[in-house]
Amino acid sequence: MTKEIKINIANGLEARPVAQLVQIASKYESSIYLECQDKRINAKSIMGMMSLGLASGTVVAVTAEGKDEEKAIQNIEEYLSSAK
């Protein structure tokens, strides 16, 4: 399952938002990846996610594969699209 999601977090994915995203992704058994600009990163890898340096307004493709993929994508979308 893949869904495109626009990042609405004010300062983009800096250290704290990345840590929260990794925590959310790590709750699920599914394999979860974020794709942006020819990079495909494991959403459960804090170092990988930090390397993306995603800004607010960026659209990423979130892919989840596994038995809880729908719930995983739903929660990640709620987090990334919330303007906190």
List keywords for this structure.
84 residues; alpha+beta; Histidine-containing Protein, Chain: A; 26% strand
3D architecture notes:
The protein has helices at residues 15-26, 46-52, 69-81, and strands at 2-6, 31-36, 39-42, 59-65. It is of the alpha+beta class and 84 residues long. It has a single domain (2-81), classed as 2-Layer Sandwich (Histidine-containing Protein, Chain: A). The chain has a 4-stranded antiparallel sheet with strand order 1-4-2-3, with helices on one face. A hairpin with a 2-residue loop joins β2 and β3. The radius of gyration is 11 Å and the shape is globular. It starts with a strand and ends with a helix. The model has no long low-confidence stretch (mean pLDDT 94).
